[in-house]
Amino acid sequence: MSLPTSKLENFLADDQLNKSQILDLIALAKKIKANPAEYNQALAGKSVAMIFEKPSLRTHVSFDMGISKLGGHALYLGQQNGKLGERERISDYAHNLSCYADAIVARVFENQAIEGLAKHASVPVINALCDLYHPCQALADFVTLSELFDDISSVKFAYVGDGNNVSNSLMLMAAIVGVDFTLVCPEGCGPEGDMLAKAQAFAKQSGSKMDFTTDIDALGEQDVIYTDTWVSMGDEDPSKKAAILEKFAPYQVNHDLMAKAGATKVMHCQPAHLGEEITTELFDDKDMSVVFQEAENRMWAQNAVLVTLLAE
Ligand code: NVA
Questions:
Q1: Phi-psi region of 45 (alpha: psi -120 to 50; beta: other; left: phi over 0)
Q2: In this model, does residue 240 exceed pLDDT 80?
Q3: Which of 41, 166, 217, 301 has its CA 20 to 30 A from that of 57?
Q4: Nearest ligand 1 atom, CA 162
Q5: Which residues contact ligand 1 via a Cβ below 6 A?
Q6: Percentage of the chain with pLDDT > 90?
Q7: What's domain 14-134+298-310's superfamily in CATH?
Q8: Active-site positions?
Q9: What local confidence, expressed as pLDDT, does residue 228 receive?
Q10: Quick one: pLDDT at residue 93?
Q11: Whose alpha carbon is nearest atom 1 of ligand 1?
């Protein structure tokens, strides 16, 4: 599995970044967070078009306000134009936006829409979540890990729940930077396609461990446990809800699971379905839960991406 060595042109998927690019972005995010005034003109005169095919709170607000903190201008494009590719071709959408915008941020249903935008746009494209990846979230989470632990390479990091866009991004990023990662998903709910094989190949290169199991009792010792909603946006089907709640119940992240694993921190990308994948008590636990630190770091991590892609 080979990682790119060239300059970052887009921010589309975690496995399009190499270890030093990820570590540089983490370091830059922390630098901007520590001294935002130094970067308040970094995007002066620049405009970013933000396409959202799905709902968003953190991503929308953190990009909009983050861009403003860099002296740039953000334009929100909601669903008024319908699904990408329906009213006009994705290639035309990309060509048109490239006439005005200096970058495109897009939250889409299908990864191929992001790929299509990046292929045809003449400006950088940032993936703000698709069915396969959520790289902005993973980068922010690695910023958070590096604030919590002096040496992230010694952190034991587990994700418990549905194998989805968030777990894919976390797993790939962990494997590339060399963090031991354990993925625990119910039978049939693990990572799809070649995602696990890709992550295992990266882990081999970086010398980290990459374990996947359906057995919640095999979670082992962990420092941090991460979880996300059991059903992602766009996959909701009320007729399947009861079966999902039953299947996932043993995988709920709660104080008992944290104690069993010896984990000290819990992470969640939000929105959380309290009482399902995580208990309210744990989500609200001021010592263990770092969910709002993660949410804040979305902005600093994305600003690092924007500065890297756009600043002269
Ligand atoms: N896996 C979730 C993440 C939300 C930020 C979803 O795609 O809905």
A1: left
A2: yes
A3: 41
A4: 1
A5: 129, 164-166, 228-229, 232-233, 269
A6: 93
A7: Aspartate/ornithine carbamoyltransferase (3.40.50.1370)
A8: 107, 134, 137, 228, 269, 298
A9: 98
A10: 95
A11: 232
